[in-house]
Amino acid sequence: MHFLYPAFLFALVSLAIPVLIHLFNFRKYQKVYFSNVQFLKQINEQQSSRRNLKERLILAARLLALTFLVLAFARPYINNGHAINANTQQAVSIFVDNSYSMQTLNSEGSLLDQAKQKAKEIASAYGINDRFQLLTQDFEGKHQRLLSRDEFNDAVDAVKISPQSRNLQQIINRQQSLLGMQANAVKSIYVISDFQKNISPIQALKTDTGARINFVQLKASKLPNVAVDSVWLLSAIHRPGESEKLVVRLHNYADAKAEKIPLKVLINKEQKALGSYTVNPRSAQNDTLSFSGLQAGWQQGKVTLQDNPVTFDNDFYFSFNVKQQMPVLLVDDGTANAYLKAVFAADKFFDVKDVPAGNVDYAGLSRYPFIVLSDIKSISAGLAQQLKSYVAKGGSLVVFPSADADINTYQALLQPMNAPYPNKLQTEAIKVSNINLQSQVFKNIFDNYPQNPDLPIVKKYYQLVSSNNSQNLMALPGNSPFLTESSSGKGKVYVSAVALNDDFSNLQRHALFLPVMFRIALLSGHDLPLFYTIGQSEAIEVPPIQTGEKQLLKLVKDSISIIPDVRQQEGSTLLYLSDEVQQTGTYNLQKQDSTVAVLAFNDSRSESDLTYLTPADLTKILPKSGSILQAGTASLKNAVTDINIGLQLWKLCIILALIFLAVEILLVRCYKPDKQVISRAKE
Prior knowledge:
The protein is α/β, with parallel strands linked by helices. Helix content is 23%, strand content 30%. The longest helix has 38 residues, at 37-74. The radius of gyration is 42 Å and the shape is elongated.
């Protein structure tokens, strides 16, 4: 047994006081007049032994009561192997989970309120000179310092629900980074959370052995939840008045089937589609909703469903741009290709610009979602490099080789993009044998596909060296590529085996040429993503926006105005928002008073799965020196004190002291030697 304050043991000298009282017994004697003292002597002899026993019992009770009272002030404890010297300063980091799942209610209210109360209880178990760090999901800079206990309690009161969601390893690393700077302090880490399964894989944490880690798991009620996980549009290019198809991904995180969940789509606050869906337990499904009647300009979309009581993931925001016209860039050797011009002149939606290969504005390539190269004999190294960067960022490139092409320059352009490139000229007369109806280009393009279709006739062609990354859209006999599609970065590359020349084939005159070029163009585009996720630190890339010292870019939503860090790079503008966006919704990206884009932000759906780690799972994650504290109705103060000090016995000492005081009182008042009946002896 050890003592927290051993100096109090000097008070045991006070045990001499009851001994002295017993020895000197300051009671006053009273004279009693009696007719015959012979009877008094007989009574005294009979009762002296009983009186001495009573006085010794009273003395023992007083000594024991005083002894246990002194021991209580000395704070005895039994060392558990983790005891800390009371005079050593401690640095304590306490993480309070304030993610969306902490809005869940249990019998004691919301989990966040319970977590804040537990944090204060932990702090109360430490001394007035100890220092505390408060950490939340926000990882705010103000939480990277140590506070006094009163300051800590005030900071805990200010904690609110946050859209951020960190994993457990990130949280521990953040706590250890501050505690690592406290060289002479004893370090302790507490994590107060509901411990959703998404917080950590079930594997041991990487921790600094200098800090003891403690988990406090709050028990949440088991609730059903259906969330909108994601949305996407089937059309890459959006035209005014045309029908749009929106795919909505619904996820049921509960163990029971979700029946007839109502869902609606709003575009610019106007309802455009409505549906009701049933989702199987623990599964996700995609549902398609159609709407039309959109005007040109930016569209602010919102998918909303009715699902109680968990509501933070019921709304999903998205945005897209309906363009009045689509810019198309035709690049040639100086003579415009008549067939290409005729194709895109058939629809006023396409805004066509024709430039010679030597006059291409490299900085403006990103404005064109679709570029066509045709009839270029030799492709310069500069143009090849810029087109590679253009495709990597999401552009679509179609390549029709020249009749007298410099094959080496085409190889230098296409091979780095992992696309087929022309190798040698073949002069045999053949016919296109098949088309790939499963590709996006030809999918749903035919009402009824004939058994013996009229396909292009080929007189001569370039043999294409295929890559593993490409697929044939149209093929020659023997599955030799005629028109191919390849992915490169975020974009697409389409390569033809023939020049748009009557000496090569009749492709440019064939009925398939116009729908194929239209489909490729309409599937093109590198528009902004439909949405972004709050908490992700990646830069947002938008088309190049020129700004000056007095022309700042800012994100605006109602009364919220955010000025991002803007950096220019070749062909685009990068926006760095850090953690400035805290509210979901659509934000206007403004340059002065004009809107240049609309960006939509949603919460991470990692908080939607309301399943939790079990105590056995937490034991696997926790280091050997850590512990799991029970967050019941009882205060955590005693549990934390037992961890820091050991098994404390001062309460037992107080109880024993009171017991012996009660024994003394009972002895004094109730325990009396038997009285003898005095009678006069007969002569």
